[in-house]
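TOKENISED FOLD:
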Amino acid sequence: MYLKINKFLLSHEYLNMNKVPGFYQFFYSSDSEQKTEREWVFGLLRQGMRDKHCYELCARRGVFHIILSFFSSPLCDGETQNWILEILQNAARDAQSAYEILRDYSLLTWILHILESKFLETQLLSNIISLLHTLWVTNLGDKGVASEGQPSCQPGSQEPPKLLALHLVSEFLYALVALTRHLRPTLASAQLTGFFEALDSVLKYRATVMQAFKDMNRFTVNETVLSTNDVLILLHKWSLLERDAKLQEDLRAAIERYQVKELQKMLKDKNKPVVPARARGPRARRRRPGEAEETAEPEQPAATLQTCRGFLRSILTHWGPALPGPEQAQEPATGASPESRAPGLACATASLAVSWVLRSVAGHPPSRAEAAGLLGWLQRHVLPQPVVVTELLRDGAVRGSLFRLYSRFCGAQELVGPAHSVACLFGAVLLQLVAAQGPAPSPCHLAVQSLFLSALQEDDEATRATAAFLVSLYVKDVWLGAQRPDTLLTHVRMICDTAEDTPSGDEEAIVILCKNIAASVPDA
């Protein structure tokens, strides 16, 4: 390239810094060394894309139109494709450039076109994940931080909050969901973490935007963010990443039962034997120098799996399954159409998702905020469905995990201060699950439930915390199989007896609640 570059420099009196030097001459060269000249141009772009001024220069000269079109050309090999993605990622690190490259070049649509391929090389897939993550983080900026912990629209404010456009957030979501189908264990830890982090962030921010629209009385459509198939694919890919044999077997049974064609094809492709490249015949592609033959799936580090596990739990809580009534969620008939199989598939998928979420928190307890989101999801979308609740209560691991989580968030120290809100929410969930265990609720259960629901309406924090404590005494007996809640009844009798021996005056909240329980339960 020395002679080429020297000839180019000597042919100009000065370099026009409003252009990319030699871009068109070397990129469209018809010389015998055109590949080398094109590689030199890409090297110049990779090293030179540093700030918004570099982006504006390349955009003004039509460089991005050319390299984006060249990506799909038969002349563009895998290494050059990775260079193009690297150039785009360097440009996406600037906020203004990241927004303009999405607006002017429809970059997310261009990425979706790439993801339509049946197979993507691991390095190419890694670069796409990095590009999407960089684009989202740069465009989000401080909007995500500003939206956390604050109401989406202040009642007295005249100016609406500054949010990303809903269609842009939805495009990011669509691209990330399409990318889910290409996840594999051979990806590096940084790419896996970046993918799950980006998907979780997009879903949270979309919920913020939707809530802001509702507060401003704006009309929105298509509030569903994840389909049943999307959740099944997420669980399937995670079972491969974590090597969860139980989840794989449960997924296989549901997929075969409801004939989910896309997932059946994934299972079929996964079970194909790995054939060495030298055994694929004379027409097999030769491996490039330094390219390793992938015969085994690497195991991901435990820290990476733990981080991604938390993101996946949060992602699943954004799924609102369209579950049918109990009479519709029956065994699918032979030859049933996909529409008639959908209700049963939704129930089966909800059972799988909730079971995995609750089992995953056993070894790695969630934070208080994550627990509140999980409990709210159970209340809104799972507990109203008797079929799903029955399946969950049959699983001993799920019951044990729920009890350990309840003991963690409903201890005595968790009932003081702001933490008591999670304990109250957990108590409401467990009371509903306890009622679903037996044929008919006992008088004691009805009394505790009525007392707890009325206490939640009180403004006094001590009353709510006391009600959550009494519910915990009841639940810890009944959930473990006791016929009578002896711990709760003994505590009630002790409080009532002590109250009789003390002089009359203003009674504390626990005395009032215990007297109400004693009056409602004959044998208390």
